[in-house]
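request received
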Amino acid sequence: MRILRRVGVLAVISFAVVATPLPVHSTGAEPFRAKERLVVSANGIASTVGSDVMAAGGTAIDAAVATAFALAVVHPTAGNIGGGGFIVYREANGRAVVYDFREMAPPGASPTMWLTDGTYDFARHHNSYLSVGTPGTVAGLHMAWKAHGKLPWQRLVAPAVALARDGFTVSPGLARSLKNILPDMRPFPASVAQFSKQGVPYEAGETLRQPDLAKTLDRIARLGPAGFYEGETAQLVDREMRAHGGLVTTEALAAYRAVMREPVTGSYRGYDIISVSPPSGGGVALIEMLNILEGYDLAATGYGSAKSLHVIVEAMRRGFADRAQHSADPDFNPQMPVARLISKPYADELRATINPAKASVSSPSSFAWRYESNETTHLAVVDAQRNAVSMTYTLEYGYGSRIVVPGAGFLLNNELGDFNAGPGLTNADGLVGTGPNLAEPGKRPLSSMTPTILVKDGKLFMVTGSPGGRTIINTVLHTVLNVVDYRMGAQDAVDAGRFHHQWLPDRVTYERNSLSPDTVAILKGMGHTMQDAGSQGVAEVIIDRGDGLEGGVDRRQADGGAAGR
Ligand code: DON
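response:
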């Protein structure tokens, strides 16, 4: 409908003026529009909390902090205080910074900690008390607020305290999610108590109250990070950990530090790219892929065409190969060749290896693809001054380790699963054993989170990011290509179909029905292995058009929402 209407309008005006080019693809959904300020997140209640903060005079960072704390209550699958993540922040004056609040491996961690009797133990690595990293979210939010916040800290945490204490209405999406996760929570009585009615799942429309979480949030509101990393909260974590062989003790919590880092930066067709730096490999891979793609006229080869898809897949293959080889915690790997990986000459070299008619072959063929769910969450905030926040944070799996700290009411992450399995353990079953990303005390596991900001002619242009494990990087790439090359608005850019290639295994997964059968056939003919898959990522996007803001909320996940004015 909308496309037809647009074509009609264009026919009328095309004689008189040179119209702005139409997007080449549209689902017909309007973006959320706001003149002054905007928050887009995975939950409408949390977005409203953030928008209200800006209405009360808060900055974009104030709003992001308040939204993040609210998500820890209303979006428990990924919103958190027991996990970690990254903020990319750009001030209207052009200064940009990364707040790295990735979890750290606690004291006692070792490269071989996930071996049982010398054999790799998946459950120990991903689903145990040993998979819990020292959480970073509270430290990171506080660090960003201290530098760029205006409203009192307590004011920013207060809405989350109220949501946890007084409860909120369970949505159909949350009811489904809580019901699905309940069996996995059974070993943890505090988790069952918090997220069900004594073992019976919540129904949509009922009220979920989290009194222990409210008390913890209240301590954080009053005491700042000390309300989490010290005192009662720390004691409660310590007790649970010691009782079950975990390593996140009071000492680990006291030693946690968030870090301010330089973002990685690049350019793409006249837009400046500002993205997250290691220990996420996301920003480096994104810029590397964009640099390769700059050498192709994607608009001319066309949206969704086999020609365009082929070169995008080849760029993904190369970006992910380098990520696997090089990316890890920079504090433990000072030799990482970041500058080279994001340079234009290096992209020229890589582009020269792409055959326009034939798929390359990834090797070695010893890594296996693992399902990447969408259990992380991204939020985007732009305030009236055009300060912008791009923030992604996570518990790793949905509901993390599924362990609620008894008496403290929050879920612990299982982020240490993002470290490699063990020294030399690379094998055909998908284990990776390369050195830079092996566990060590104080090290942060390699991430794929890719919070990113685009700038045009010195002015904010776009805020983007997504959950989805390794698919995150490609989902963010898609949003950038959709807006820059294919001229889509924020909602169309988020709605458009996605595909993913991560070097190894050597295959393209694409969202079901997002590619035409003949396009798939052409790509197969070029040598690509094509596999249809479920949905990919949950991007949240804001575009600054100069005369107003556009929000794109990803409807692949229930409950997402934009709020602004
Ligand atoms: O940091 C990362 O890249 C992952 N821990 C994010 C996890 C995620 O997006 C959810 N699904 N696997």
